[in-house]
Design goal:
CATH class of the largest domain: Alpha Beta
Radius of gyration: 22 Å
CATH architecture of the largest domain: Alpha-beta prism
Bound molecules: shikimate-3-phosphate, phosphoenolpyruvate
CATH topology of the largest domain: UDP-n-acetylglucosamine1-carboxyvinyl-transferase, Chain
Strand content: 25-35%
Number of helices: 14
Shape: globular
Number of strands: 24
């Protein structure tokens, strides 16, 4: 386990360029794996989730070749049948677990899909049941799951009230089903902007998803898919940490190559910051966020911005007044319970935070004490908690290697913008805490 301490900072108007989006990369890798021919992906992020995704599609029969550090070529699966049972490990990736389970259903051979202990706890039943309804033999409702296709197509009812990833997974996999797939949505789709991201990615490969109504979609089977070259745009969620770092450091940040056209809800995070009093300038691919002297709390529905909730909660600790975040019940099913774990950790600082099943309320401006916080093995908690050190030097983050999931170079990026990060010997912390 790695432990990091935020020692001090001297952030002055930094400029940053984000690595490629893991969200887009996950979609392009899945689609390239079932495309007809070869796809070259450029500016691919290097992280644990993406390594696991490339490994998984390779095992399913796609040909993966690394052309350079950030460039990979994927030739789509030609034979939808493997010799013997294929075993896949999705590590900590929820997106991959859902996407690859659906994709593997196109194979007529057997696949066993497993993941980390943490991922085994996250829900999969909705995907498993839908695949059964589409003709796939599926054992189990949580990982590890064993399945044997093919995906025949048909009509299903899908509950998307815990995760949009189920729908994204089925939309992608159904493009290669033996016949048409009709998906009737039950319950309110959470994180719906991610479904738009999926539809856009499918379009890039020439695929089609038809919206029959707001709660029914149709995907024609055996579609021809092709996208020879794709540049992966910058990660909008990763950029949130640098915006908040600048505001806490009472300075500005310039983010080059920001993906303003992204349908992903989190791409509008800067709008919340502007409402809180930050100055925001958007200009031809460049986003600049500046501190203007004061920030105030806000009321915001973050149903479509799940992954930047921890970033906003950390900022809210240091602004005037109350920040009330609503519509986030689905955060309970992430790498950690991002309502309970996030708030319980921050309460250790002496923060005034309350939470309910679907909301978080933070009263800013409290007197906070530096202490040790656990990331709960959640990369987003680790990255957000580190920012607290800008205002309260001495914050220690345990299980800091969780960042490898999406942003292994995070600590280096912080150093580059002027935040001093130290490695801590965990035995020493035990002594300091009397442990
Ligand atoms: O489709 C995706 O890439 C994702 C969808 C969201 O999940 P939910 O739909 O489960 O909220 C998001 O939180 C996750 O990090 C990635
Ligand atoms: C929730 C996340 O990812 P996943 O669901 O793919 O594990 C995330 O990146 O914050």
């Amino acid at each position: 386990m790695t432990t990091k301490k935020i020692v001090s900072h001297h952030i002055v108007d930094p400029e940053v360029v984000m690595p490629g989006s893991k969200y887009l990369a996950n979609r392009y890798i899945a689609l390239a794996a079932i495309a007809n021919g070869e796809t070259v992906l450029r500016n691919l992020p290097q992280n644990d989730d993406i390594e696991a995704a490339l490994d998984a599609v390779g095992k399913l029969g796609a040909t993966v070749r690394h052309l350079s550090e950030k460039e990979v070529s994927i030739r789509g699966i030609r034979e939808y049948k493997q010799q013997g049972t294929v075993k896949l490990n999705c590590r900590d990736s929820g997106t991959l677990s859902r996407f690859v389970t659906a994709l593997a259903s196109n194979l007529e051979s057997e696949t066993v899909i497993d993941a980390s202990k943490q991922m085994r706890q996250r829900p999969m039943a909705e995907v498993a049941q839908s695949l059964r309804d589409l003709g796939v033999e599926v054992s189990g409702n949580n990982l590890p799951i064993k399945l044997k296709g093919p995906l025949r197509g048909g009509t299903i009812s899908l509950d998307t009230s815990r995760s949009s990833q189920y729908l994204s997974a089925l939309l992608i996999a159904s493009l290669k089903a033996k016949s048409d797939t009709r998906i009737k949505l039950v319950g309110k789709t959470v994180s719906s902007s991610y479904v738009e991201l999926t539809k856009e990615a499918i379009k890039k490969f020439g695929g089609r998803v038809e919206d029959i109504s707001s709660s029914e979609l149709l995907v024609k089977g055996e579609q021809y898919l092709s996208a020879p070259n794709i540049d992966v745009a910058g990660d909008v969620v990763s950029s949130s940490y640098f915006m908040v770092a600048a505001l806490l450091g009472k300075t500005s940040v310039t983010i080059r190559g920001f993906d303003f056209n992204s349908p992903q809800g989190e791409s509008l995070f800067y709008g919340i910051l502007s409402k809180m009093g930050a100055e925001v300038e958007c200009q031809a691919g460049t986003l600049k966020v500046s501190y203007t002297g004061s920030l105030r709390g806000t009321e915001v529905d973050m149903g479509n911005m799940p992954d930047v909730v921890p970033t906003l909660v950390v900022l809210a600790l240091f602004v005037e007044g109350i920040t009330h975040i609503t519509n986030i019940a689905h955060l309970a099913f992430k790498e950690s319970n991002r309502i309970v774990d996030l708030c319980e950790q921050l309460n250790k600082l002496g923060a005034e935070i309350t939470y309910s099943k679907d909301s978080i309320t933070v009263t800013g401006g409290q007197n906070l004490q530096a202490t040790t916080l656990s990331s709960c093995h959640d990369h987003r908690l680790a990255m957000s908690f580190a920012l607290i050190g800008i205002r309260i030097p001495g914050i220690v983050i345990e299980d800091a290697q969780a960042v490898e999931k999406s942003f292994p170079l995070y600590w280096d990026y912080l150093e580059k913008i002027g935040i001093e990060v130290a490695d801590v010997n965990s035995q020493l912390i035990g002594v300091q805490n009397g442990g």
